[in-house]
Amino acid sequence: MVRAQKMEKPRAEWGSDIVVDLLKAFEIEYIAINPGATFRGLHDSLVNYGGNHAPEIVLCNHEEIAVALAHGYARAKGKPMAAAVHNVVGLQHASMAIYNAWADRLPIIVLGGTGPMDSANRRPWIDWVHTALVQGNLVRDFVKWDDQPASVEAVPESFIRAYRLATTEPAGPVYICYDGDVQEKRLEQEVSLPSLSRYPAPLPLQAPEEGFEKTLRWLLEAKKPVILADWVGRKEAGFNALGELAELLGAPVLDQFGRFNFPVQHPLNLTGQADKVIPQADLILALDVPDLEGATARRAQERGNRRATPLISANAKIVNVALDDLLVRAWATDFNKLREADLMIMADTGVFLPELLRRLKAEKMLSELKDDIARRRTDWGQIYEAKKAALDNELKAEWDEKPISMVRIYGEINEALKGEDWVLTNGSSQGKENFYLPACKFNQILGKYKGGGLGYGMPASLGAALAHKGSGKFCLNIQPDGDLLFTVSSIWTAVHHQIPLLSIVCSNRSYFNDEEHQERIAVVRNRPVENKTIGIRIEDPNVDFGAMARTYGCWGAGPITEPKDLIKTLREAVKVVKSGKPALVDVVCQMR
Ligand SMILES: Cc1ncc(C[n+]2csc(CCOP(=O)(O)OP(=O)(O)O)c2C)c(N)n1
Ligand SMILES: [Mg+2]
Question: Which of 78, 99, 208, 398 lies 20 to 30 Å (CA to CA) from residue 137?
Answer without folding.
Answer: 78
